[in-house]
Amino acid sequence: MNSKRSWIGLIVLYVCSLFYFLFQGGKTSLMLFGILNVLLVYLFIGYWGGIRHIHGHRLIGYEGHHRQQTQIVAGHSLQITFSAQFPRFMLMPYVIVSEKLIRHDGTKQLYEGTMVPGFRNKDQWQYIIPHLKRGQYSFATTSFLSYDAFGLKSHGREIYINNTIQVFPQTLSAKQWTELLRVHLGIYSSNMFSKYTKESTQQNGIREYMHGDRLSKIHWAATARTGSWKSKDFEREAMKKSIVVLDRYVKPSSSKDIERLQQRFEISVSMAASILDYSMKNDSAIGLLSVGEQYFYNAPSTGMAHHVEMMNHLMTVDSDATRPVSQLLHNRTKALQGNNVLFIVTFELSKELLTSLKQIRGESTLFYIASHSTAAEQLEAIAAISAFRIEGYQVIEINEWETTFESLEGSGA
Asked: In angstroms, rounded to a whole number, what is the distance separating the alpha carbons of residues 344 and 174?
């Protein structure tokens, strides 16, 4: 509307100048009419031959890298390089560029910069998106805005370049995962996933050595050839079904707890992703059960497509459950009973959860994401962990993800 009004104003001004020149005459009217004609020609050239014909390209990658990278791990930063090709007759001295990055939950980030057309009618604009959170991001339309040299008229254009960024949860490496299990469950616990599969005598490859592997499993030729410990890999035949249960129930007691509990939920998602990632690397069949506003269940299986589907869910999952995980397990007791192994990532170590696990009558390991903030809550958590362990359930307590990550880095070095 403003653009239409400005053009109407210019036309009215031109008509008035024309009438003044025709009916008044003289050098003043001629000079005024000539200046106005030159100005209008400049504005029309800027409108029809300028910013309306800009083309652009967006390169997404790590800082210093020159290849497209649209799948990263949470916490990393990305450098966006936007290249624009301007038309040959670009009379605008500069162009203001703005881009909007939209997360899957609707959160928006706005980035603005300035581009100056050079002799080759092209320019680049770079900016950094720091420490991206887990989620899926997409770019809205890129807006260009410019003014003429006199500041009389603005020109705008929008182009859409289809780019998405997938930010997956952080995961522990195989060495860190092995060290985590060794610290909490003992030196022979690193095979806690592979113990649920049985092996044939037919060897089909070589894998990295893991703590607890018997001497008969060591592949001496590969160890001597590579200089690092290698073990024989055998064809496996599944015996039990492993299922990761993700607790999505977060109930803050006050507004101050929202941010703290949200950080705990991110830790729980990272732990669930680590379990899935570790199982895939060991070719162990595993599934995922995650219930909130939307129900998600993938039956235990192997393969990259199966793994990608579960990781895509963890990429965008939110803490939107309305019931605790103990009620979820209670309602699915019959479905989970039998030959199942549960890996439960939870904030809850309640009596109701213990009762539900007893009803399921299966093997379970709990990854407890500690969220206590007082000494009394810490003592309650210690008592709850002891109660679960007395009943034969393994409990691994996770506090701060960064602390866990750094300590395991140091232990594994």
From this structure: 20
